[in-house]
Predict the structure of Aldo/keto reductase.
Amino acid sequence: MVTPMPRRLFDGLPPVHPIGFGAMQLTGPQVWGPYPDQDKAIALLRSLLDEGVNFIDTADVYGPHTNEELIRDALYPYPDDLIIASKGGFVRGGPDYSSLGWVGNPKYLRQALTGSLRRLRLERMPLYYLHSGYATDAPFADQVGELKAMQEEGLILHIGLSNVTAEQFAEARRIVPIAAVTALYNVGNRSGSALLRASEETGAVFSPWHPVSLSDGGDNVDRVRQTMEAIARAHDASARQIALAWLLSRSQNILPIPGTTDLLHLRDNVAAAAIELSADEIAQISALSPEV
């Protein structure tokens, strides 16, 4: 095992621990409402700092709003090296996922950002994602253009994209520099391969969805699990830790943001950054799913 070194991924921001934290699970059932044990959630968020984790990913639609408020209640005033990323562009009208939709109206995106800044007590968002490229109520270029305008006003430091295609990523980069992108990518499902390649070519950070999932491989799930568990035994680790270690070996641009509500799981996730996989182990895992 090696001691993981923080990596400088964002200009103008502190180096980040190789493993970030996705805060989405710190909400109610189906990501609706507040997390039922507020004291536990606050303690978990504060423990991030003790573990060296200094990148937190959230969004206004988580709750909605309760996730950002929880982060503020737990961690404000923030340490100088803490980086918070939030997102705007999804709306949610109730606890059922069928109420989830997309809004790209530039005025709404401005409202979403200013609301997030107010809840988090930030004057400027270190990283702000357009949460979806699916919205059709405004041209995609206008949505990105509004984020650029807010960046020029000093409300955003870096701009990111979530739920977009590689073509939209390229279109957005013609308007403004894109610092980060998120997509589905893990040991069993490489749907986000094109976006990972684009991020490597442009220097953008790539945060994979479902980074520790072993069940995204479709008909290949059993093979994925068997391979990952065998490698995990060799390292006295869990298969999910090996999944994170493989992602970190895959690219220097990757910043996994696994979520959890459990302190022991959090520590396991952080410890994965110290696992060194052999070239053969990396090759075995890489062969589990095709790059698309």
DSSP finds ten helices and nine strands in the chain. Residues 25 and 259 are 6 Å apart (CA to CA). The first strand starts at residue 21 and ends at 22. Strands lie at 21-22, 55-57, 83-88, 90-92, 100-102, 125-130, 156-162, 180-184, 205-209.
